[in-house]
Amino acid sequence: VFEYVLLTHFFRKSSILKWTKFHFEWDTVKQIMIIGFPSFTAESTVAIVTIGFNITFVQYAGEVGVASYAMVNSIHAMTLLLFFGVGAALQPIASFHYGANLAERLREGLQFAVKIAVVLGGVAIIVGLFFGKYIIGLFDVQSPELLELTLTGISLF
C-alpha cells in the first residue's frame, strides 16, 4: 500500500520526475555484460562449490558437519575482511604515490602492507589455534560433537 502512495508522486502534473519510455542501449548493455561476466562467473562458482561442500559434508559428517563447515566458513570470512581492509587502505596510498611518480615510496608502502598482512595472518592463526573455543562460543554451540568438529576445522583451515 505504501508503494502506491509513493507512486502517486509520478502521476501528478506538478511532478518534476516523469515516466519516460525506456529503451536499452544495446552497446552499453554489451559493455556491462563484458565487464560483469568475470564477476558473475566467480560468484556463481563460489555458490556451486559451496553447494558441493554442503553435499559432501552431509554425506560424510551429517548435519553436524554442515553446521561446523558453516561456522568455520563464517570465521574465515570475518578473518578475510582484515586482509581486504589492508588492501583497501593501501589502494589510495599506492595510487597517490604512483601518480606522483614516487616509486620508492610506493615500494615502501607495499612492503609495509605486506608486513601488516603477515602479522595479521600470524595473529589469526594463533587466535584460531589457541582461542578457537572462545570464537566458536560466539555461535552458542551446545553440542560437544559440533564443538570438537569445528575446532578441528579451524585448525585445518
UniProtKB/TrEMBL annotation:
Q: Where is the signal peptide?
A: none
Q: Which domain of life is it from?
A: Bacteria
- Compartment(s) where it occurs, according to its Swiss-Prot or TrEMBL record: Membrane
* TM annotation in the entry: 32-55, 75-100, 112-136
Q: Name the InterPro entries on file.
A: MATE_fam (IPR002528), MATE_MepA_subfamily (IPR051327)
One GO MF term, please? Answer: xenobiotic transmembrane transporter activity
Keywords, alphabetical: Membrane, Transmembrane, Transmembrane helix
Q: How does it sit in the membrane?
A: Multi-pass membrane protein
Record GO cellular component, one term: membrane
Q: Provide the primary localization.
A: membrane
Pfam families in the record: MatE
Quote the protein name from its UniProt record. Answer: MATE family efflux transporter
- Organism per entry: Bacillus wiedmannii
